[in-house]
Amino acid sequence: MVRIDDSGDVTKCWLSPEELGRLERAAGEDGWEREVALQLMGRCGLRASEVNYPSDEKLRYSEKGDLWLFEVRGKNTKGGSKKIRDAWMPDDVADDIHKFSRERDLAPSDPWIDASTPSVRRWVKEAAQRVTTDADAARWESVSSHDLRRSWATYHLVERQVDVRTMMSIGGWSDYSAIEPYLAEPTEACIGEAMRT
Questions:
Q1: What is the DSSP string of 36-93?
Q2: Range 3-196 classified under CATH 3.40.50.170
Q3: Tens of pLDDT, residues 137-181
Q4: In which element (H, E) is residue 13 found?
Q5: Relative orientation angle of helices 32-42 and 145-154, to the nearest 10 degrees
Q6: Model-level pTM?
């Protein structure tokens, strides 16, 4: 079930990989573009405002790293003009992107997602409403587009223990203070694993 923290001014939600998958599939019921948008936020860590930037010409396979990277122009957490970074893309998302681009006959410079930031945020809310059940309605109703990025960052930082510098690089955080809020307390599974070794 979606984990929430409503102790501050903003309700924060963390979704498990399975919950993210449910949300992506629900978005896909209203169109593949919506599912891809949610994958870019929940599986690649993009902000809602960054989703309409990447295109095929920005995606590349790195032989050195044996991974997919794509260029993103996004927020500069130190302020000022937008910052360009290389974001990481899981292999299965890259497969979906390639199929999506071919099916839509997108030119290399055409963005994968042709939608405004408010539209992308609305898509997340609509997908969350679709997966809501009576038992967990309050939790799903609180889910926002930023929670997908929060879930991505926390999963990799806490559950997979990816080093902070790597996450700062691929997630677009300029300094430790900007990424520190994503270092949430470990889950019970993470505590159990750490204490067994």
A1: HHHHHHHTT---GGGTTS-BGGGEEEETTTTEEEEEEEE--TTSSS-EEEEEEE-HHH
A2: no
A3: 778 888 999 999 999 999 999 888 899 999 999 999 888 888 888
A4: strand 12-14
A5: 40
A6: 0.89
